[in-house]
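=== RUN LOG ===
request id: a7f3
mode: sequence -> structure
chains: 1
length: 525
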Amino acid sequence: MSIEATLGEAAIEQKLEQFLVVLAVSLSVATLSQIFSWFRQIPYTLLLVIVGLGLAFVDIRLVNLSPELILEIFLPPLLFEAAWNIRWQNLKRNLLPVTLFAVVGVVISVLGIALALNQFTDLPLPIALLVGASLAATDPVSVVALFRQLGAGERLTVLMEGESLFNDGVAVVAFGLLVGIPLGIEDFSVTTTITRFFTFVGIGIGVGSLIGFGISYLTQRFDLPLVEQSLTLVSAYGTYLITEELGGSGVIGVVTVGLILGNFGSRIGMNPRTRLLVSDFWEFLAFFVNSIVFLLIGDRIDIASLGDSLDLILVAIASLLVTRAIVIYGLGGLSNVLANTQIGWREQTVLLWGGLRGSVTIALALSVPAALQGRQEIIETVFGVVLFTLLVQGLTIRIFLQKLNLIGDQPQRQRYSEALARRVALKRVLQYLSETELSPEIEPDYYRYQQELVQEQLQSVEEEIETLQNEYPQLRSLTMEQLREQLLDIEADTYAEFIRTGRLNRNLSPLLQETLADEPDINSD
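=== RESULT ===
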């Protein structure tokens, strides 16, 4: 065996060992956070950052965090999972504020942070613009998880997650446009920059739409859950790589394909069992990837070097908070005026404080070319700000939710939904027992015994539903919401059945969708 082959095998073995160590530490943190009640007060991803910091402090480095690893391997599944789970109806109702936050907000953040750094420090403007572009990408994974855990309103979650989805794409595009300026290979031109921006975004949306709708119609032709699950994984990575190869924004492409497959493809081409299987798969993958990314973020931060750029970090933190306030309060107020979105000051305050920075920001900073003078200042400034947002804002966002009385009834809604599902399931079991022909091998008394057991369980569930309705009257609206969704599912499944049997050549737009959306709210009186 040659020396090169031996060295290659040793390197692979070393990488595998490092990966297993990272995975073991991540799973240990996840387990401890569930065993000890005190740890449950801290979002899981923030615990990983803290553990990574601790390992770095004692000079234990797990593995090098390359930007390519995040951007090409870790980023697509995180974006796809978030886009898959966002309901288009909810996003459409909040599309104006999300668009304002994600597009205009990025421009304000980049310019505000860059001008402050250039004005109050010795950082040149081209370098400061790269810092601003890196810090413009929000990463509210921990915050959204906390929202769901505490039962914060669905709209708040949609605003935070929707902004982050599109915000990441715009920030990555902005960074790509600005990185050539300090290297002297590009000159800044407003016209050229705007043209390139729309080109990047347009290619991303175009490729994502083609792949998303293509896979949606493909899955109508067969019912193979594992194949359909694999297609979603291929679509996430394939869209990113193809879009980047064509000169577009891979982030925008992945978000587009995730929205299409999650809201359209999974409805017309997947049966409920397959949709659940795919959703569970992506939930696991997002947990797996987040565990590694946030642990490595903490592991990669060098505390000693941050002290050398303390002035840059403090100015960047202050300008980040000021620009974030301008974006949220200013653009939120504009959205209220233009579209009557009614985003209150309490929600705006949580959106302000919940704008954390994380993996995308770190990846952008590390992707600055090594030949660029000032690269170290960019990395140290960005890492310091990320550390502040994760450990200060991330650990205190729960207090904001509690003080502003934004903790909702999500735990009760979940319990109520489960009770409704059990009632339907038990009624179907009773129907089966009453309609099934008695088997000669089974005594009739056994059938009656099973019916009595099921009826007792059904009565218990009915009592639980009634108790929840009396204690939380607002839960009654959940039953109506589920009925609307069931009606839309029946309509979509019928169209898909006609297409599979050849009686229809193309999918029809949902006829009930606008009708149900426009119906009066009977709870408003």
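=== NOTES ===
The radius of gyration is 26 Å.
DSSP finds 21 helices and no strands in the chain.
=== END ===
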